[in-house]
Model the fold of this input.
Amino acid sequence: MFKIYYKLFCAESLRFPTLLFLLLFLLPARADEGMWLPMLIQKKIPQMQELGFRLTAEDIYSVNRACLKDAIVHFGGGCTGEVISAEGLLITNHHCGYGQIQAHSSVEHDYLKDGFWARTKDEELPNKGLTVTFLRRMEDVTEQVLEGVTDQMSEVERQGIIEANIKKISEETLGDMDPKFHSVRITPAYYGNQYFLYLNEIFRDIRLVGAPPSSIGKFGGDTDNWMWPRHTGDFSLFRIYANVDNQPAEYSDDNVPYRPRYHFTISAKGLKPGDFTMVYGYPGRTRQYVLSPAVDYIANRSNPQKIRLRSLRLDVMNREQAKDPAVRIQYSSKNAGVSNAWKKWQGESRGILNARTIGKKEAFEKRFQQWAEASGHQEYITLIPRLKELYSQLEPYLFASEMYTEAVMAVELLRFANTLESTVERSGTARAAEVAERFFKDYYKPIDQEIFELLFTEFYRIMEPFGDLLPSDPAIGEPLPAEASRFAVLAEYLYSNSALADRQKTMDLLAKDPASVLTLIRQDPAFRLVSPFVVKNRDKIQPRIRDINRELNLLYRTWMQAIMEFDSDRIFYPDANSTLRVTYGTVQGYSPADAVMYLPVSTIEGIMQKDDPHIFDYDIPQSLRDIYAARDFGRWETDGTVPVCFIATNHTSGGNSGSPVLNADGHLLGLNFDRVWEGTMSDIEFDPSVCRNISVDIRYVLFIIDKIGNANYLLDELDISE
Ligand code: ARG
Ligand code: ASP
Done:
């Protein structure tokens, strides 16, 4: 191995950065695995400092003074965002603000296509329902949560006590704070071996400030998604508003820009291979400690079927969206959502195969078993067999549940019929009318009808071995012909006879005497079709899943203790659960395949190489072409070009999108937005040789705001360190 590098080193054509890059490859891959609790980061500080970090644990998390955590928000519950000015300016990904940008878009004002830049604060656009939350403090409450729990009690008793304790602690913590603007969450870590409390502050007046055109913010689209090299300007800007006392409030004209406790300084100094980076945000869900059969299920059974079902939907959407600009806007957000997981599952299954995760886990389980038997610890000896038994019980139910979600409930009309019924029942017809308006704004019947036919055909094929998990009569009163086209016949009937497939008919229905509305919805063919599935799922499938999962979780609690004893050298961190985490690493390329090496930084040159007016995903704005031709990069030029994206070894997950990527001084280098294809299995196994997070370089963001948005007045708000 050394010999090969030696030769490369001596090759005269090698430029310095490449040499440096190779040097880094010679270093052993550092295990930068882990998503750490901010409150407990102290124990990781020495390793972080070894990699170059120059701050302290108090700078990361403190309740006594303003610190990095005070600039970070959970954005809309699914992404991360961060405050970058003293006037509450917030930055997150374009794909995180996508729903909002789309909601403000129409064929006349197509902000998705053309971008949006508020010229003054008056032009900033409010977003109904959008919230951002700040973590104010966290606390280890294990002792209080487990108070009264004894070793002798049954699991049911134990759970009862825990739930009661959690309720009591939450109420006490909340005190007389308004639950609209404050929340308390108590979540288990390590499968209930520990509990943490999070006190959050919720802001509800969040306005859209700016977004680049999708041809920049989503450059590369779903073709480049989950892949490196990447050239996406994946950012959008919002502003948090508060009342005149700087407290969270509902939207109001009288609200003023929020003055945050802390906001990030932006580093325009750039980065190079080997530099320390840290990502601070809200990873959603990881499953690092599950047994081999769980991984086998995900990689080899669940993912392949879900991928197949989503392919069917995507083909229809893509074709219809290409035909009509209005439909393209209507389905853009839906399409992106469907395709994102669809592609991730493909990378994940492949990554699990490549990393030989299942085999490694099996070998680990074997060693564990031997150790347990040697130790004579009865509870440990039976652990794996009991877990495996539960998995085999769980699998058919879990599979059915996933297929219901990916097929039956993926039909918009059916989901809508179900939602409308429960909305009328719970909140009345006025609320239901709002739901209906929102639904029809982005509904295109021909897409849905075709998808219904395809999904049902496939669903019944897949579910054949699980007949008892299907409702006995999925029909709607009409007998179904037996031939292959029976779902085409059903689709035709359903979509021409259901009032709920038509905006006007639905609105008319909802305007009738409220006493009769519920009955009318329940007689509608769409509701009659979906209802037996909903009932079957609710009464037969979900309760079984809940019961088995409860038992699994209990065993996993013991499993965590056991493997911590067995594998005492290993680093353990709690699985992600949408709570705030710190992960750190260094800027580094990787080798995706034999004889291939990727550099860690992409530039505007790559955008120009991909640019193609005939390919939707690669058709950049003419203004960017002109700027490039004139090489008018302004102050954002670095080494004769503009840096665009970079990769590093931070262990991130879904939900980390929009997270700040910080340098050794805690300054903002960029925004996390994705992972590389070969490393998408990192939710299950983090392989340091190929797992990389992808970020957009903040200098590219500033360049786009300045040169494409011509919104340089926004730059005046920022603290840029150059
Ligand atoms: N893969 C990234 C994440 O999981 C980005 C998704 C948005 N981009 C897209 N082309 N759909 O969210
Ligand atoms: N793109 C993801 C997100 O939206 C991040 C990831 O899965 O790496 O959170």
